[in-house]
Design goal:
heterodimer; A: 483 residues; alpha/beta; eight-stranded mixed sheet; disordered N terminus; B: 413 residues; 11 helices
C-alpha cells in the first residue's frame, strides 16, 4: 500500500497524466482519472457533411450571408462564403438556403440529470444538503441520463451543458461538463477535455438551508465557511508538501539498485502519507487552477466579497452565476476577468434578486465583460437563443447596440470560455468540434426552431425525420398514448 | 372600499393614432387605420383621419389591444421568498376557502406593476392559489393607482386546484379531491335551501362555514366561472363531467395534457389556459405534455388562452415576469398556433372567457382604450412597446428597473 501513490502526479484534467509536478504544486494520490471517459464515447460520424447556402453565424466575428460549413470526423474542416469545392465524394450535402447555422449552444448552468423531470422525490440528486461544505461530492455521481429535459434541450440547439450541484451549500461539489449526446451514463456524456467546475453559492440559499440547523445562518457565517474550507485546503497542501519532502529525503537514503545484497534490516520504512481527503482534494485542485469556480452569487456586494476571498486564498472565480447585480460592478468584473452567467429577465423572486434588470447582459457586454445567458431551468434551456434575443432588445431600449455576433457569443463562445472548453467548441472555426445547429430562421426570432442539431459531427436531432429524435428511456410508454 | 366612491376619471382629450396597422385581437388585421380614443374609450376605428388635438403617427407600427394575463399573483407577491409580502394563499387544513378574496390583498403600488406594463400587459386577473378551492380572483388594470384596487365583492372567477397540488387537503388521493368537491357543492345547495335554519344553528354538519358556502353561490348560479387548475387528461375529463353534473361554467388552467382530450373540451367549448413555455413532463400529471398543445386545442375548436403565470409547485412562474406573455404566444405560433389567431389568446379569448368581452379584448369602438403601440410585430422579441395606454392614459415608462439602469449607466463623476 505504499508505492502506488506517487507516480501520476497531480492530474485532474485530461491529458496531464505526464505533467511534471511543479515545486509549488502538490503531489497527490490519484486513484482514478476523474475526467477521462470510462464508458465508450459515441462514435464520430465518419461521413463528412457540407451545409451550404446558409447564413453562417460563426460567433468568431464573421457572418457569412451565403456561407458553408464543412465537417468530417467530428471536427470542422472549413467555414466560409460561397461554394466549397473540396467535398469528399460520399459527403452528405445539406442545402440550407434560407436557414441559419450557428455553433451549438452552451448552457453554463444546468441541473438537468440531477434535478430531472418529472419532479420525482426519488430523483432529487442535486443538493447534498447534509452539510454546508461538501466539495467531495460530484454532480456526475447524481446524474440521471434518462432525464427527458436533456432530450428537449438538445432539440433546442443545446450541445454542451455544465451540470452543477444545487446552491444549498456554500461549496456544493464538483460540476461536470457534458455533451448532449443520448447516453446511458454520466461518464459517457462527459465532454472529453473539459475541466470540472466547483459550485459555490453565496447569500440566501445556504442561510435558508442551514439557518435552523448547523448554520451558517448569516452572510457572515457564509464567508466564515468559505474561509475555513480554503484554509484547510492550504493546510492539506502543506501536509502533502511535507510528506513529499520527507519522501524524497527517505529515497535519497535508500541504497541504489546495485546494492542487491542489502538485507531487509537495512531498509527503514518510508514516511506515512497523510490521510487522503476527497473534499480538500477538490479545493486543492481549485487552488491549482485545475477546477474552475462557478459561483452562484446575486448581489454586487457579495460578488465583491467573493473576489476578495479568492485573492486571499489564491484562486480564480471563472464565472459568477445569476449575478443579477453584476451591472453595478462591471468595471471590476472586467479587471478580474470574470465572466457573468445571467438571465434575460428573471428577477425579484427573493431579496437578493430584487435589483435584477433586463439590461444586465447588455451593460456587461458594453463594458467588456464576458456576458453569458444561462438557463438554470429545464424550460428556458430549450430557448436560450430567445433569451439572448430579449437581452439584446432590452439593451437597445437604453441605446446599447449589441451586434448579432456578440449576442450569439452570449450563448456559445463565452460560455465555452467559462467552462474551459473554448479551444474545443463554441465557435464555427476550423479544428473545433462539429457542434452545429441549423435553424429555420434567425436564431433571434421567437418563431424560429432548430431544424438539425449536430454534436461532434453526429446528427443527433433532425426535425424533418419522424424518428429524428431519440426519446429518453423514461419517455417510452409514458409520453404517448399507447395503442 | 374606496373604488365605490367612484372617483371619476379626469376627462382626457381625444388622441388619434393614424395610419397604423391594427391587430384587432379577434384575428383581423386593419391596414393604415386611424384609431381614436377619448375619455378612456375607443371612439373611432377607420380609414378617415381625425380632427383631434393630439395625433400620433402610426406608420410602420402596430397597434394591439393591451394584453390580459389571467393567471397571475400580481400585487399579491412582492418578493416570493419573503413571507411578509405573500398574500396569495390562505393556508388552511381543509383547503376550502372560497370566501378568500385575492382582491383584499392586492397592492396596486407593487413594483411589478409598471415593470410588466412595459411589455404591453395592461390588465391582469389576480388569483389566489393553494388548497382545493383557493378563493376568488379579480380583474385589475396595471395602473398603479388606488382606483385600480378591485371591488372584492365583485369577483371575476373562483379558483380551484384539482390536481396533485390539492392532494394534501383531500386525503392525498385524486378521489379525495372530487369527493370533497361533491360534498362542498351539496352543502352549498343545502345552504341555499336552509339558510334560515342554518342561521338558527339548526343544521346538519357542514363542510365549511356559511360565509364560504355563500361565496360559492355565484359559481353554482353560473355567474362566475370555476377555474380548475389541472393537467392530467383523466383529471380534465373528471372536471368536464363535474361541470356537466353541477351545471357550472369551468375554465381549465394548466392543461398540459389537454390536447389528449381536445375533442371533449371542444364539445362544451371549455376554455383552456396554457403555460406554453413549460409544456414538458415536469410532473407525473404532465407526462404527455406536447409543445403543440395550444395549436392542437385551437384546431379542435377549444378557446385557447395563454398565460405567463403559473401556479404549480413544481414549476412556479413568478408574477414579476408576466411581461413574458407575448413571448409565450410567439412560441405557441412556432409550434403551429395560427399567427392570425395567436393574439386573441391574450386579448379577446380571455376577455370572453371571463365575461369582460364588452369592455376589452379588441380594438373596437366602445371598448376600453387599453392599447399598445409596437415598433414592429408585437410577438417578435426585437419589438418594443413604444407607448402603452391604459383606459386612455399613457402609462409612464418609469419603473424600478429603469431607475436602476439609469443610475448605473451614468458616467462616473
Amino acid at each position: 500500500m505504499k508505492s502506488v501513490y506517487f507516480s501520476l502526479g497531480l492530474c485532474f484534467g485530461l491529458g496531464c497524466a505526464h505533467q511534471k509536478s511543479e515545486s509549488n504544486k502538490t503531489v497527490l494520490p490519484v486513484f482514478l482519472q476523474p475526467v477521462e471517459a470510462a464508458d465508450p464515447a459515441p462514435l464520430n460520424q465518419e461521413r463528412a457533411v457540407l451545409i451550404k447556402n446558409a447564413t453562417v453565424m460563426t460567433a468568431a466575428g464573421p457572418i457569412h450571408a451565403n456561407g458553408y460549413v464543412y465537417f468530417e470526423k467530428g471536427r470542422i474542416a472549413a467555414v466560409g462564403t460561397g461554394d466549397f469545392s473540396q467535398v469528399g465524394t460520399d459527403a452528405l450535402v445539406v442545402d440550407a438556403k434560407g436557414f441559419f447555422v450557428t455553433p451549438g449552444l452552451i448552457d453554463t448552468h444546468s441541473h438537468m440529470g440531477v434535478y430531472p423531470e418529472p419532479a420525482a422525490s426519488g430523483n432529487q440528486d442535486g443538493n447534498e444538503a447534509t452539510a454546508p461544505t461538501t466539495p467531495e461530492v460530484w454532480a456526475e455521481h447524481g446524474f440521471w441520463p434518462q432525464d427527458p429535459s436533456l432530450r428537449r434541450a438538445r432539440e433546442g440547439g443545446i450541445t454542451t451543458i455544465q451540470v452543477l450541484p444545487g446552491s444549498a451549500n456554500l461549496i456544493g461539489g464538483r460540476s461536470f461538463v457534458a455533451k448532449l449526446h443520448p447516453t446511458v451514463s454520466a461518464r459517457q456524456a462527459r465532454f472529453i477535455g473539459a475541466p470540472q467546475g466547483l459550485k459555490m453559492a453565496c447569500g440566501e440559499n445556504p442561510k435558508r438551508t442551514y439557518g435552523e440547523k448547523s448554520g451558517p445562518s448569516t452572510r457572515m457565517g457564509n464567508v466564515a465557511g468559505y474561509r475555513a474550507a480554503f484554509q484547510q485546503a492550504h493546510e492539506y497542501r502543506h501536509s502533502w508538501q511535507k510528506y513529499q519532502r520527507d519522501l524524497e529525503e527517505w529515497r535519497k537514503q535508500q541504497p541504489g539498485p546495485e546494492d542487491t545484497h542489502e538485507t531487509d534490516e537495512d531498509l527503514s520504512d518510508p514516511p506515512e502519507p497523510p490521510a487522503r481527503d476527497f473534499a480538500l482534494e477538490t479545493l486543492l485542485a481549485v487552488l491549482d487552477g485545475k477546477i474552475l469556480v462557478h459561483n452562484h452569487c446575486y448581489r454586487a456586494d457579495e460578488m465583491s466579497l467573493m473576489l476578495d476571498l479568492a485573492h486571499e486564498f489564491g484562486f480564480k472565480i471563472r464565472s459568477f452565476h445569476h449575478a443579477l447585480e453584476a451591472y453595478k460592478i462591471r468595471d471590476r468584473l472586467r479587471q478580474e476577468d470574470v465572466s457573468v452567467s445571467t438571465w434575460a429577465d428573471w428577477w425579484g423572486f427573493k431579496m437578493e434578486a430584487f435589483d435584477g434588470v433586463p439590461q444586465n447582459a447588455a451593460m456587461l457586454a458594453q463594458s467588456g465583460v464576458r456576458a453569458i445567458i444561462h438557463s438554470d431551468h429545464e424550460a428556458d434551456v430549450r430557448r436560450l437563443n430567445q433569451e439572448a434575443a430579449k437581452a439584446v432588445t432590452s439593451g437597445k431600449k437604453f441605446g446599447i447596440e449589441i451586434d448579432p455576433d456578440t449576442a450569439l457569443r452570449w450563448v456559445t463562445a463565452n460560455p465555452a470560455w467559462a467552462l474551459g472548453v473554448d479551444q474545443l467548441t463554441g465557435t464555427l472555426e476550423v479544428g473545433k468540434a462539429a457542434d452545429i445547429v441549423i435553424w429555420d430562421g434567425s436564431p433571434f426570432s421567437v418563431y424560429t426552431k432548430t431544424a438539425k442539431v449536430f454534436i461532434d459531427g453526429i446528427l443527433e436531432f433532425d426535425r424533418q425525420d419522424p424518428n429524428g429524435s431519440r426519446l429518453t428511456d423514461f419517455e417510452l410508454g409514458t409520453s404517448e398514448i399507447q395503442p | 372600499m374606496i373604488t365605490h366612491i367612484l372617483l371619476s376619471l379626469a376627462v382626457l382629450a381625444p388622441i388619434a393614432i393614424e395610419n397604423v396597422k391594427v391587430e384587432v385581437g379577434d384575428g383581423t388585421i386593419l391596414k393604415r387605420t386611424t384609431v381614436v380614443f377619448e375619455d378612456g374609450k375607443i371612439i373611432a376605428v377607420g380609414e378617415h383621419s381625425a380632427d383631434t388635438a393630439q395625433k400620433i403617427d402610426g406608420r410602420n407600427k402596430v397597434l394591439t389591444p393591451g394584453f390580459l394575463e389571467v393567471e397571475s399573483q400580481l400585487g399579491l407577491i412582492e418578493v416570493d421568498l419573503e413571507k411578509a409580502t405573500q398574500d396569495f394563499t390562505f393556508k388552511s387544513v381543509d383547503g376550502l376557502q372560497p370566501a378568500f378574496r385575492a382582491a383584499d390583498g392586492f397592492n396596486p403600488f407593487s413594483a411589478h406593476v409598471p415593470v410588466n406594463r412595459e411589455e404591453g400587459v395592461t390588465s391582469a386577473i389576480i388569483s389566489p392559489t393553494g388548497g382545493l378551492i383557493s378563493g376568488t380572483g379579480s380583474w385589475v388594470p396595471l395602473l398603479a393607482n388606488i382606483e385600480s384596487i378591485p371591488s372584492a365583492d365583485k369577483p371575476i372567477a373562483m379558483f380551484a386546484t384539482v390536481g396533485h397540488d390539492a392532494f394534501q387537503t383531500a386525503g392525498e388521493a385524486r378521489g379525495g379531491v372530487w369527493l370533497k368537491l361533491r360534498q362542498l357543492f351539496e352543502d352549498v345547495r343545502f345552504y341555499q335551501k336552509n339558510q334560515a335554519a342554518i342561521q338558527r344553528g339548526q343544521s346538519r354538519p357542514l363542510l365549511v362555514s356559511p360565509i364560504h358556502l355563500e361565496a360559492m353561490v355565484p359559481v353554482l348560479a353560473g355567474k362566475i366561472p370555476l377555474v380548475m387548475r389541472v393537467h392530467r387528461a383523466s383529471d380534465i375529463i373528471a372536471a368536464i363531467e363535474f361541470s356537466r353534473r353541477e351545471q357550472i361554467k369551468i375554465i381549465i388552467s394548466g392543461g398540459a395534457e389537454a390536447h389528449v382530450v381536445a375533442d371533449y373540451l371542444a364539445v362544451d367549448r371549455i376554455p383552456v389556459i396554457i403555460h406554453q413555455s413549460i409544456q414538458s413532463p415536469f410532473a407525473f400529471e404532465t407526462l404527455m405534455a406536447k409543445d403543440d398543445n395550444a395549436a392542437r386545442l385551437d384546431r379542435a375548436g377549444v378557446p385557447v388562452i395563454l398565460s405567463a403565470g403559473s401556479w404549480e409547485q413544481e414549476n412556479w412562474l413568478p408574477s414579476q415576469n408576466i411581461r413574458r406573455l407575448r413571448q409565450e404566444v410567439g412560441i405557441a405560433v412556432s409550434y403551429g398556433l395560427s399567427r392570425a389567431r395567436a393574439l386573441a389568446s391574450i386579448t379577446s379569448t380571455p376577455a370572453e372567457a371571463f365575461g369582460l368581452q364588452t369592455q376589452m379584448g379588441t380594438v373596437a369602438v366602445g371598448k376600453r382604450a387599453d392599447l399598445v403601440l409596437w415598433s414592429g410585430d408585437p410577438l417578435e422579441l426585437s419589438s418594443v412597446a413604444e407607448s402603452v395606454w391604459i383606459a386612455g392614459e399613457l402609462a409612464p415608462q418609469k419603473n424600478r428597473q429603469r431607475q436602476l439602469v439609469e443610475r448605473y449607466l451614468k458616467p462616473k463623476s
